[in-house]
Amino acid sequence: MGIRQVEVQRFSLVSGKSIDDVMASLDAAVGHPDMSAFFHMVAATKTTADLETLVGEAVGPTGLMEFARFDMGTILRMYHGEKAPRCFRLLIGNPLIMKQMAEHVPDAAAYAPVTILIDERSDGVHVSYDRMASFLAPYRNAAALKVAQDLDAKIEGLLAEACN
């Protein structure tokens, strides 16, 4: 069994906007395909061109799509009532970007799509993201790292826009 040490860099912002406004901004920027139907259509594609078209139709204006959304605040509200802070975990990405990284570093598929955490705290709405480049840095693959850095810039831009 091998164990690899990975030091993760977390990108975080605090917004004065409401969590509803931050979520609405994120929702407008990424695609929201029916994931069950999407994966069935992926499995049915015969060519890479068909796959690229399918992904292109699924992503939003940022070139990203939402794979899943978890309302973590539901658990908090069970224990603390409706005044509990809201907390969401979004899985966002693009299968073609993941492919570009995984071609060079297969373990990249374990980190994509990426996780974005949006939660209410006393000082505002916190938005956090663990940088993909930090996950891939230990593999020392320049090609995968370049794709990861580009993805980080895209995600961080998305989050900055949502928070401002």
Structural class call reads alpha+beta
- The H/E string reads EHHHEHEHEEHH
The major beta sheet can be summarized as: 5 strands, antiparallel
Number of strands: 5
The total tally of domains equals 1
Low-confidence stretches: none
Number of helices: 7
Distance between the termini: 45 Å
Strand content: 15-25%
Radius of gyration: 17 Å
- The CATH class designation is Alpha Beta
Shape annotation: globular
Can you characterise this structure?
By secondary structure, the protein is of the alpha+beta class. It has one domain (11-163): 2-Layer Sandwich (TATA-Binding Protein), CATH 3.30.310.70. 46% of the residues lie in helices and 21% in strands. It has helices at residues 19-29, 35-44, 48-58, 73-80, 95-102, 132-136, 142-163, and strands at 10-15, 65-71, 87-93, 114-121, 124-130. It has a five-stranded antiparallel β-sheet. Strand 4 and strand 5 (124-130) form a beta hairpin. The chain is globular, with a radius of gyration of 17 Å.
Task: Give the SSE map.
Elements: E1 10-15, H1 19-29, H2 35-44, H3 48-58, E2 65-71, H4 73-80, E3 87-93, H5 95-102, E4 114-121, E5 124-130, H6 132-136, H7 142-163
Antiparallel strand pairs: 1-5, 2-3, 3-4, 4-5
Quick tags:
5-stranded antiparallel sheet, 7 helices, single chain, alpha+beta, 164 residues, TATA-Binding Protein
Summary of the model, kept short:
The chain is an alpha+beta fold. Helix content is 46%, strand content 21%.
